[in-house]
């Protein structure tokens, strides 16, 4: 499996000659995963701990676990992987860290609209060092599983171009994709990113809800309200199941169309420009990157339609041909779900 291959790669990895020494201050889950990933990428790793003897067994054999002062002296680049409220305990390392790059990986407990950020506070504590904000959006699990799993983007910002470039090079060597966010003043935005709940899902979920409301109101007006006004026929019992069931496939199909539509726009723009190297507009770029979410929302509507379809024979024909109808609906629903699954697989591989 990929995990076994990755672990085997970790065990076989040795530090490459001439590679910079990477220091890690902290011994938590993130520090351990980061050390494994750095060792696998060919770096010499030294970990600074307040209790080196107790923490040594938690890290790879290739990583040296020593005191914080010794790690700060040996390292060329240092990851500060301690809680922000404990940054002040590192002040005694200021002489050893002078002139070196510090990577702040901390996150806040809640969204902050006003600064200073944790990275800016760290820069104030270590004015002679070069602080880079980054790796706070990468989880320990992602570091362990390798570049095939999890998000590969690492958002970076710093007031030092040289320090930021060195961290970007390290990112690429670890298998990640660095994203330059500018100066350290952008660190507050980077620290808030992990606290937003499913940011890439907002537009797809909103589109799904709006489409559902639109088609439900249309079906309600056509199938329930119009017969009641014209002939006084009351069929309001259809609202919770039949009307919803008629609405869901319409939403699923429109959402599925929204998966493929941005690809058509992109192809048209490339033909119009005569090249594929121009950057797409921001709205189209966001649409293209959100196709997976649109596809999953479409798949959800199809699954709900299958469930509602199973409820109809139970309510309308529970006395006659129940088994026949159930079998027919199960087969049809299975076919619908299977087709959507195949479509979704094709979209995610694009």
UniProtKB/TrEMBL annotation:
Question: Which region is the signal sequence?
Answer: none
Q: Name the residues that span the membrane.
A: 201-220, 246-273, 293-314, 326-344
How does it sit in the bilayer? Multi-pass membrane protein
Xref: SUPFAM superfamilies: NAD(P)-binding Rossmann-fold domains
Q: Name one Pfam family in it.
A: F420_oxidored
Question: Which catalysed reactions does the entry list for this protein?
Answer: 2 Fe(2+) + NADP(+) + H(+) = 2 Fe(3+) + NADPH; 2 Cu(+) + NADP(+) + H(+) = 2 Cu(2+) + NADPH
Please, one GO biological process term?
iron ion transport
What are the UniProt keywords, alphabetically?
Endosome, FAD, Flavoprotein, Ion transport, Iron, Iron transport, Membrane, Metal-binding, Oxidoreductase, Transmembrane, Transmembrane helix, Transport
- Annotated Pyrroline-5-carboxylate reductase catalytic N-terminal domain ranges read 22-108
Q: Where in the cell is it found?
A: Endomembrane system; Endosome membrane
Its GO CC terms are:
endosome membrane; plasma membrane
Q: Which cofactor does it need?
A: FAD
Any one Gene Ontology MF annotation carried by this entry is: ferric-chelate reductase (NADPH) activity
Q: Which PANTHER family match?
A: DUDULIN-RELATED, METALLOREDUCTASE STEAP3
Protein family membership = Belongs to the STEAP family.
Indicate what this protein is called per its UniProt record: STEAP3 metalloreductase
Say which species the protein is native to. Answer: Lates calcarifer (Barramundi)
- What's the gene? STEAP3
